[in-house]
């Protein structure tokens, strides 16, 4: 207590000075409207600065809660975006299926609409990956087409995706013929131009013209007959005295594949069973002959 009194005694002049200053400001602000306006303006400015500092300090300490709330809302919005994308995809698949026109030759076939999620066109052996697999009914050796023509054939199937041997793969040979003709050959890619394939092994007496349409022959249970494949480009070149080869511009744009249809054939299993029976009969006949 003694030290407190000593402190006030040593600084009494400053306390008296501060008291006089406060009284002077009060008298000045209370007696003159102009000075009162200046005082109130200054007080408001100081109060605003104090409130702003307080608000910033409070907001800084609440950043963690705000960030957590923003992250939660972003997660909800991302979930809604993904759900909307899935709805749009399903609607597009439904429209693609509903608008597909099936003639009498395609009645035994059904179609699974799929999206291309990976694709290559510049490699020597090209493959395509689809977003549909065994859970969706896709099986190996099913054909794949798009709105323009033949795309490839399914080779490997997983639960939710599948791998397709592209038509731009020398390992894939497709039985084709000229539209309106009976003679057929094998369509194969030579590894050069991704827009051009070769129709080989056509009989020498086959009549054709540049611009003719090349279609599937129907000699396979994988693809329906008459599916467009390409357009004859130019003259033939000889590869055998009894056969010739045509250059064919493919109708499908493999560099821009998006929606495709996997061909489900109701006749495929039956045809394979019959072919297996024929092989067994041939083997039994050979054993009996020997």
Question: How would you describe the overall organization of this protein?
Answer:
- There is one protein chain.
- The protein is 40% helix and 27% strand.
- It has 290 residues and is of the alpha+beta class.
- The strands form two sheets. A six-stranded antiparallel beta barrel has the order 1-2-5-4-3-13.
- Helix 2 packs across helix 3.
- It is rod-shaped.
- The model has no long low-confidence stretch (mean pLDDT 76).
Q: What class would the helix/strand composition place it in? A: alpha+beta
pLDDT < 50 runs, ≥5 residues: none
**How many E strands?**
13
Rg on CA atoms, Å: 41 Å
From the spread of the alpha carbons, the general shape counts as rod-shaped
Number of helices: 5
How are the strands ordered across the major sheet?
A: 1-2-5-4-3-13
Biggest sheet architecture: 6 strands, antiparallel, barrel
What's the SSE pattern?
Answer: HHHHEEEEEEEEEEEEEH
Which percent range fits the helix content?
Answer: 40-55%
Strand content: 25-35%
Distance between the termini: 131 Å
């Amino acid at each position: 207590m003694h030290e407190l009194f000593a402190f006030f005694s040593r600084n009494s002049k400053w306390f008296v000075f501060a008291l006089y200053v406060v009284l002077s400001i009060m008298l000045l602000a209370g007696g003159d409207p102009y000075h009162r306006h200046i005082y109130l303006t200054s007080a408001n400015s100081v109060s605003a600065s104090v409130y702003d500092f307080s608000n910033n300090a409070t907001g800084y300490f609440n950043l963690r809660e705000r960030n957590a709330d923003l992250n939660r809302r972003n997660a909800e919005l991302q979930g809604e975006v993904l759900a909307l994308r899935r709805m749009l995809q399903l609607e597009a698949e439904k429209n693609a299926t509903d608008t597909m026109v099936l003639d009498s030759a395609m009645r035994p076939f059904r179609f699974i609409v799929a999206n291309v999620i990976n694709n290559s066109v510049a490699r020597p052996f090209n493959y395509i990956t689809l977003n549909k697999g065994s859970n969706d009914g896709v099986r190996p050796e099913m054909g794949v087409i798009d709105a323009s023509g033949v795309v490839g054939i399914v080779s490997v199937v997983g639960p939710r995706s599948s791998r397709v041997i592209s038509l731009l793969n020398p390992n894939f040979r497709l039985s084709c013929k000229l539209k309106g003709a009976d003679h057929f050959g094998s369509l194969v890619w030579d590894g050069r131009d991704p827009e051009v394939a070769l129709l080989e092994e056509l009989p020498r007496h086959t009549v054709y013209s540049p611009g003719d349409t090349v279609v599937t022959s129907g000699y396979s249970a994988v693809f329906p007959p008459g599916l467009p494949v390409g357009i004859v480009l130019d003259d033939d070149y000889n590869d055998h005295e009894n056969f010739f080869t045509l250059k064919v511009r493919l109708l499908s744009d493999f560099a821009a594949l998006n929606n495709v249809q996997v061909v489900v054939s109701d006749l495929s299993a039956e045809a394979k069973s019959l072919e297996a029976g024929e092989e067994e009969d041939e083997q039994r006949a050979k054993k009996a002959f020997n």
